[in-house]
Design goal:
Layout lengths: L2 H8 L10 H8 L2 E2 L3 H9 L7 H9 L3 E4 L7 E4 L3 H15 L1 H6 L4 H15 L7 H10 L8 H11 L3 E6 L4 E5 H4 L8 H16 L4 H8 L3 H11 L4 E5 L2 E5 L12 E4 L4 H4 L13 H4 L9 E5 L2 E11 L2 E8 L5 H18 L3 E3 L12
Parallel strand pairs: 11-12
Antiparallel strand pairs: 1-3, 2-3, 4-5, 6-7, 8-9, 9-10, 10-11
Length: 365
């Protein structure tokens, strides 16, 4: 089992099979989304010819939604999935944040007042940015000092009251979820557990049950219950004493694995608790320095994380600086140049890739 190749294929990176942002997001179940420009590219690179405006349109028309489901972390999910996912994941996230709410003096009565302020501010299809949401709270005599403002917004989103909706130049505005997202068929908790498990393993396999437990943020008991409901639809293989599960319909890309310029927080990295199949442990700190939760954009070459890259916007376009971990072959460099050009196409800007340098370049023949 070639884990990296299969994941590239199932995650739609090596061979795009969908035509719309909504299809990509629904296939993956959810895509980590705390970095808005990054998650736009995460979606775009899984489509054959997308540009950033296509992803903005999907946000602006309510086809994809940004909110806090899995692990209480910002994700992008399909509109049809947002309610059942929040119903499934929010109880554990709310319970786990009780001590923090107590420390911020956000009791149930105060939060209920906050919710009413948001309803009044947004009702009738209105949308407001974060500063305007904070101003509405302050106008009602509710402090947003420190992290109170963020936790108030987060709490309202976990309860399914608000979500991030249309985009502007730098951020998204908040809207009432009930007004912004069309009603969808409800799922029982058992149905939701099974559906989330299926979305995970069908899109990210080969993966382990521990990977799913971590990614979903559910209790081990509930995650295993969801997995048990879909286990008969999966096949497994044990490598190095680790059991991996995958859809039996999985295939490999027709094209040879090449190079990809992935953004930070991409599901190819963040979709798994154990990243050793694609990332050598000695480079983990380069991807997430000191384990600080901030993930760098990555160079992926032949399925493996081979370095990092950064972008700088210039008047003439985008300057990309690539920092591989080791000497790259001439062919791999050419392949990464194509990956950089693909990013430029997505951004509708020319990209200049600076010299790819590493410590062994002088020895390359």
């Amino acid at each position: 089992m070639q884990i990296d190749a299969l994941r590239l294929y199932q995650q739609q990176i090596a061979q795009a099979q969908f035509t719309t942002p909504q299809q990509v997001v629904a296939w993956l179940g959810g895509m980590q989304g705390q970095d808005l420009p990054g998650v736009k590219w995460s979606i775009g690179l899984r489509l054959s010819n997308a540009v950033e405006a296509d992803i903005n349109t999907a946000f602006d028309t309510g086809q994809i939604i940004r909110t806090w489901p899995m692990r209480g972390t910002l994700h992008v999910v399909a509109a049809a999935d947002v309610r059942w996912m929040l119903s499934l994941t929010s109880p554990k996230n709310l319970t786990g944040s009780q001590k923090r709410r107590d420390a911020l003096e956000l009791d149930d009565k105060t939060l209920a007042r906050c919710h009413q302020v948001f309803i009044k501010a947004l009702q009738g299809g209105k949308q407001k940015n974060r500063d305007e949401m904070y101003a509405a709270l302050q106008g009602a005599g509710i402090s947003v000092e420190g992290q109170r403002g963020y936790h108030i917004l987060w709490n309202a989103a976990l309860h399914g009251l608000i979500c991030l909706a249309s985009t502007d130049a730098k951020e998204q505005n908040y809207a009432l979820l009930e007004e912004w997202v069309k009603p969808a068929k409800n799922k029982t908790r058992d149905e939701a557990l099974a559906e989330l498990a299926w979305r995970y393993f069908s899109s990210r396999g080969p993966a382990t049950i521990k990977d799913f437990i971590w990614w979903s943020g559910l209790s081990a008991t509930e995650a295993r219950a969801g997995f048990a409901d879909i286990q008969s639809k999966l096949v497994s293989e044990t490598l190095h004493k680790t059991e991996y599960w995958v859809s039996p319909e999985i295939g490999l890309p027709k094209a040879k694995l090449s190079a990809f310029a992935l953004p930070g927080f991409d599901e190819y990295i963040l979709g798994y608790q154990d990243r050793s199949a694609v990332l050598d442990a000695q480079h983990a700190d380069a991807i997430c320095p000191g384990g600080n939760g901030m993930f760098a954009s990555t160079m992926v070459v032949n399925g493996q994380v081979a370095g990092t890259w950064k972008r700088n916007f210039k008047k003439s376009g985008i300057e990309m600086v690539a920092s591989p971990f080791a000497v790259m072959s001439k062919q791999d460099k050419l392949n990464f140049e194509e990956a950089a050009a693909r990013y430029g196409h997505f951004m509708c800007l020319p990209v200049r890739l600076g010299s790819i340098k590493n410590s062994g370049d002088e020895n390359e023949k």
